[in-house]
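User: I've been trying to design a sequence by hand for this structure and keep getting stuck. Would you show me what you'd pick, starting by listing the structure so we're on the same page?

Assistant: Good idea, let's start from the same input. This is the structure you sent:
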């Protein structure tokens, strides 16, 4: 079983996985679970070229589906009563539902409003402006995110300490000069554990950022991309070349040989 991150691992593009990578995965005939921090509307264009069955875990494992049928297997969502504890003074969150993102533009600087609007359009996301996050526009959310400049990350992480949620921070796949801090009920490692328990097979996992750490730590063979942070590379069994070089092919080929 393969558990694979998408952005920065399978591809360096927001909209397309290299055909060589898709062909390699198809020809491997391995069962595959793609595990991404994105929600479905932003990742759907990239998935259309995958013409074989696979599992898809969205928002770091908040929702798991059989693809291409889009059959939902299970969800692990944040509930609305958790929102008050997530409203930090240092930065305003964005609430991700299954299809729509809710935000308060006036709580962001002009620079960030410009960036977030550009990002929203590029990633095919629908953002709805709201005046207040309390009461919540939805009863449950797959994820809450802060999309910020890197200097804000430590303040957000400090503000989230002690709250019973899964917290991860990554470089923004749209522009790696910015960061995404994401709060969910699940993490990628919990999906790897579920794959092992459900299918009874060892797992090869590959990723490139901090939200992939739990996935790599719970895999039988772990692959980190060369562009991954040092802490992620240190837990990996194999270091693969970058996604721009389609390095996942080399990394998985090495893993398959190690398995024999």
């Amino acid at each position: 079983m393969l558990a694979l991150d998408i952005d920065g691992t399978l591809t360096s593009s927001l909209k397309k996985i290299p055909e060589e990578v898709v062909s390699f995965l198809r020809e491997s005939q391995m069962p595959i679970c793609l595990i991404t921090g994105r929600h479905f509307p932003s990742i759907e264009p990239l998935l259309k070229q995958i013409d074989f069955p696979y599992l898809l875990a969205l928002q770091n494992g908040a929702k798991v589906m059989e693809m291409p049928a889009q059959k939902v297997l299970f969800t692990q969502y944040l509930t609305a009563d958790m929102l008050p504890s997530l409203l930090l003074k240092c930065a305003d969150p964005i609430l991700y539902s299954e299809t729509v993102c809710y935000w308060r533009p006036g709580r962001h600087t002009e620079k960030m409003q410009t960036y977030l609007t550009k990002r929203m359009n590029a990633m095919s996301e629908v953002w709805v402006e709201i005046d207040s996050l309390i009461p919540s526009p939805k009863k449950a959310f797959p994820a809450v995110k802060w999309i910020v400049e890197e200097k804000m990350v430590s303040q957000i992480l400090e503000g989230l300490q002690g709250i019973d949620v899964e917290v991860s921070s990554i470089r923004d796949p749209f522009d790696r000069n910015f960061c995404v801090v994401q709060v969910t009920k699940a993490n990628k490692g919990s999906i790897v554990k579920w794959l092992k328990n459900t299918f009874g097979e060892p797992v090869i996992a590959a990723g490139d950022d901090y939200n992939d750490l739990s996935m790599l730590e719970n895999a039988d063979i772990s692959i980190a991309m060369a562009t991954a942070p040092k802490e992620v590379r240190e837990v990996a069994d194999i270091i693969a070349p970058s996604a721009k070089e389609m390095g996942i092919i080399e990394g998985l080929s090495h893993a398959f040989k190690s398995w024999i």
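That's my pick for every position. To get oriented when you compare it with your attempt: The radius of gyration is 18 Å. The chain has nine helices and 16 strands.
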